[in-house]
Amino acid sequence: MSKSFSLSQLASILRDREIEADEDFTAAAGTDYGYVAAWELPDGDYLIAYGDNGKTNYDIADDANDLACWLESPDLSAMDTIIQTANVRGSENLTEADGDAEGPFFIVKTRSYYGPTEISSFVEMDDNIGEPREFKTYEEAQEWIDGEEEGAYCTSHNESSAPTYTIVSE
């Protein structure tokens, strides 16, 4: 005998048995939903629970790339897309700039926290006004990173290690 369940029933069964979602995300600004939970199913699909103005909806994503599409906003500038890629797909999926390319160059700083959670952002200007710091050459960006990695690093609350840096260009 086979039973069929709605997606909301399946999510409820998983939660009732204290099977936590494999991944919890906050979708990028500009999407119609915020919180997204995903359970990886035996066939590689993902059961997705997502919030939409106080209501929880459910769907199936075919694979990890399809899941990432749930979390990404398609209406971002090139610079915002770089940070979104790092925060949704992981900093290892950033395209590192070619050292021979023409600038400007920017640095993405990725901090790791216990959980595990990673948060990526651009290295900002000296006056911390929120604009990404621009480097004219790849070498200049690498020198800045080398300076940051010199000496001891004091982690912030719940931070698990020193940050990593990736040099990117638009």
Which key phrases capture this entry?
26% strand; 170 residues; alpha+beta; four-stranded antiparallel beta sheet; 2 domains; three-stranded antiparallel beta sheet
What topology does this entry show?
Layout lengths: L6 H10 L6 E4 L8 E6 L5 E7 L2 E7 L2 H8 L6 H12 L15 E9 L3 E6 L15 H12 L14 E6 L1
Antiparallel strand pairs: 1-2, 2-3, 3-4, 5-6, 5-7
Order of the strands making up the biggest sheet: 1-2-3-4
Low-confidence spans: pLDDT under 50, at least 5 residues? none
Q: What integer is the average pLDDT?
A: 80
Number of domains: 2
Classification by helices and strands: alpha+beta
- The helix content is 10-25%
Radius of gyration: 19 Å
Straight-line distance between termini = 56 Å
Describe the fold and architecture.
By secondary structure, the protein is an alpha+beta fold. It has 2 domains: 7-71, no CATH class; 78-169, no CATH class. Helix content is 25%, strand content 26%. The protein is built from 4 helices and 7 strands; from the N terminus they run αββββααββαβ. The strands form 2 sheets. A 4-stranded antiparallel beta sheet has the order 1-2-3-4. It has a 3-stranded antiparallel beta sheet with strand order 6-5-7, sandwiched between helices. A hairpin with a 5-residue loop joins strand 2 (35-40) and strand 3 (46-52). The chain starts with 6 loop residues before the first helix and ends with a strand.
